[in-house]
Amino acid sequence: xxxxxxxxxxxxxxxxxxxxxxxxxxxxxxxxxxxxxxxxxxxxxxxxxxxxxxxxxxxxxxxxxxxxxxxxxxxxxxxxxxxxxxxxxxxxxxxxxxxxxxxxxxxxxxxxxxxxxxxxxxxxxxxxxxxxxxxxxxxxxxxxxxxxxxxxxxxxxxxxxxxxxxxxxxxxxxxxxxxxxxxxxxxxxxxxxxxxxxxxxxxxxxxxxxxxxxxxxxxxxxxxxxxxxxxxxxxxxxxxxxxxxxxxxxxxxxxxxxxxxxxxxxxxxxxx
Length: 272
Prior knowledge:
The protein is α/β, with parallel strands linked by helices.
């Protein structure tokens, strides 16, 4: 009985689906066989595959693949939450992005997902007191993916960063679980203050493309920030804000805006 329970505990349906998709992709596009085998099928777990991807993408003349691979393997082996967060992020992209049809796509091709997993390793380094190495990972993530997340920022699980170009998240920012944001979002400060100076984003929030959320303000759970808005004050939960500066223009429109991804402002005060 104990052996059966142990075997069940090691079943990983996410990784199993990834492997099935990878085999199908090699069959359908043999020219990608080497890439898919090296990046996915050669590895026994999702964590090992992500560590390989991390080291491959972030290596440079200043830091070898081998060193980065050792860092990532250590991170995933000592902190199981990293692997669980990676799975939650992967499912979030698959569920919310209409351009994502398979689990292998974010791992191999989507820079938002890859940048987020790189941030998670940088944050692990930061919490371990290895600040200089965490800054190196931040720098290389920004250079490689165009996503600049301070390693001290705190980001929950089930996060989707769609397209991801020009994302900036500051040092004292907090992002809750199940948040979705599009490209060119900034979670920034408003001046040179050195203490708690960045936004706190609640669970289930949807942040539209180009939105800027600035200062030590709170965005309530399950709210929506319209594309191009500049948010300078607190946002109550379950509301939609839009404009420059952003104002409340209506309700969020549904219980889980980050999942529905509905960015239309139907029924809002600004409609038309």
